[in-house]
User: Which sequence fits this backbone?
């Protein structure tokens, strides 16, 4: 729903008078008109088939509050047809609360847009069974319902593929502000992530903060009782007049403006300028020649930055800066004097390939295991030369999970301190030990003793364990000296799962 839906609840405030009911609708159509850029609007009726709804022994009784109210404001279906026609003429969606099964028949026959379940009917299972057969959106108020009851009703309607919204509601008329419990909107959103959540409110009509708080908590529907006070028909204590609704909607629109979009906002040019003026710049520690690829040891970060200078915020292990002109010691690293290569997308692509082979293999890896990409000849060549290492433990003993992607090879190396054993868990690889190659498949175990030169490659991809004595960062010696000369041959990630 792009805009929140505001439901004006007429209930019995038509007072059994079609002309008055029509006047109520038209008055609130005028109120709603300036706010249609922010909200959608519906007008709601209540239906009771009074001939069957009220027990025969109680009909005509003046000593039962609601019996008297319902009978005094009785309207026939022809009258309701007139009110619905006025709603549609005024651009309202139509909604109705049925309190019995015959009323649901009328809702279907009249083509009303939305069916609303009142809080008192929330667990009225005969009525819910009938409503569930209607192909219309359902909105249900939850006042007084335990979480177990809400669980049951939500499950019942979701299993019938109903378009459902549940409303937090407090059934005190009017509800004191301290009892509105608007945090319940957030609780319901968290508990029922596939269900829209809103707020049906009965606070004193002059209070405008409740709608702001409900919208801030994520309510997508707000419902409010309305009435048009006249000399003959005064409003009750919880029904809002047109001026009160106008102020209420203005507060809601102000809240929507403050909340802004759900998508991440784009900073303004002024905001970026302000932030940039407070950032540190990147400066050369020493004289550097053109063509030099900057490393962390070549630079320092200091305030203030010069316009057009590379900043500390842009410096990243995923950004590789190469000088296009000489740079003197203490001089700023300028964007115009460098070429930059951004490698983040390439790293994420390789990490996703590792995730995929782990999913396929069924090998479980602890969520906190650090991931290391070894790209011996550069990240751009990781697809053909490299290895992924997930360190599970490194004490007097060490365990890693290693991944060779399809078509990937690990160049020849040896260790002076570490002895290691490979256990193939998934796929296969060719392992070379002092120049003698052997094929290893799932279940095979290969031990590499100290000083033995070893290399691996896999045509189809391979996941294997390395079980070894302690791993030392300075205990890997490569046959190709170009690898040792590459100081940026590893990328470490701690959050990759």
Assistant:
């Amino acid at each position: 729903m792009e805009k929140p839906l505001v439901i004006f609840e007429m209930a019995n405030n038509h007072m059994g008078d079609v002309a008055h009911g029509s006047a109520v609708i038209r008055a609130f159509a005028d109120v709603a008109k300036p706010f249609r850029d922010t909200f959608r609007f519906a007008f709601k009726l209540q239906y009771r088939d009074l001939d069957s709804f009220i027990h025969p022994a109680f009909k005509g009784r003046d000593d039962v509050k609601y019996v008297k109210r319902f009978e005094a404001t009785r309207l026939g279906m022809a009258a309701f047809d007139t009110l619905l026609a006025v709603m549609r003429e005024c651009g309202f969606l139509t909604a109705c609360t049925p309190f019995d099964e015959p009323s649901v028949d009328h809702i279907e026959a009249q083509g009303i847009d939305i069916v609303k379940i009142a809080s008192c009917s929330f667990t009225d299972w005969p009525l819910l069974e009938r409503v569930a057969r209607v192909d219309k959106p359902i909105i249900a108020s939850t006042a007084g319902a335990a979480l177990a009851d809400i669980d049951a009703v939500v499950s019942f309607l979701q299993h019938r593929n109903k378009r459902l919204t549940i409303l937090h509601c407090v059934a005190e008329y009017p509800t004191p502000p301290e009892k509105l419990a608007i945090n319940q909107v957030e609780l319901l959103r968290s508990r029922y992530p596939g269900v829209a959540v809103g707020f049906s409110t009965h606070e004193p009509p002059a209070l405008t903060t409740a709608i702001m708080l409900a919208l801030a908590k994520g309510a997508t529907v707000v419902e409010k009782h309305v009435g048009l006070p006249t000399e003959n028909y005064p409003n009750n204590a919880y029904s809002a007049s047109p001026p009160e609704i106008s102020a209420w909607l203005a507060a809601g629109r102000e809240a929507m403006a403050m909340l802004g979009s759900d998508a991440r906002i784009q900073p303004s040019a002024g905001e970026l300028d302000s932030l940039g003026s407070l950032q540190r710049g990147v400066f050369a520690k020493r004289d550097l020649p053109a063509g030099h690829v900057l490393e962390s040891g070549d630079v320092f970060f200091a305030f203030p930055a010069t316009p057009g200078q590379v900043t500390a915020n842009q410096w990243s292990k995923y950004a590789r800066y190469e000088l296009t002109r000489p740079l003197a010691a203490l001089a700023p690293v300028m964007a115009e004097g460098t070429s930059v290569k951004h490698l983040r997308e390439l790293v994420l692509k390789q990490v996703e390939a590792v995730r995929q082979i782990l999913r396929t293999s069924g090998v479980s890896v602890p969520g906190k295991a650090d991931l290391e990409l070894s790209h011996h000849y550069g990240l751009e060549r990781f697809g053909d030369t490299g290895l992924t290492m997930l360190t599970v433990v490194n004490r007097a003993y060490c365990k890693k999970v290693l991944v060779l992607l399809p078509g990937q090879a690990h160049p020849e190396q040896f260790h002076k301190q570490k002895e290691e054993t490979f256990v193939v868990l998934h796929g296969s690889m060719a392992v070379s030990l002092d120049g003698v190659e052997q094929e290893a498949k799932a279940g095979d175990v290969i031990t590499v003793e100290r000083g033995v030169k070893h290399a691996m490659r896999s045509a189809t991809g391979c996941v294997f364990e390395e079980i070894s004595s302690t791993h030392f960062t300075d205990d890997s010696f490569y046959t190709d000296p170009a690898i040792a000369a590459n100081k940026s041959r590893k990328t470490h990630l701690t959050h990759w799962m």
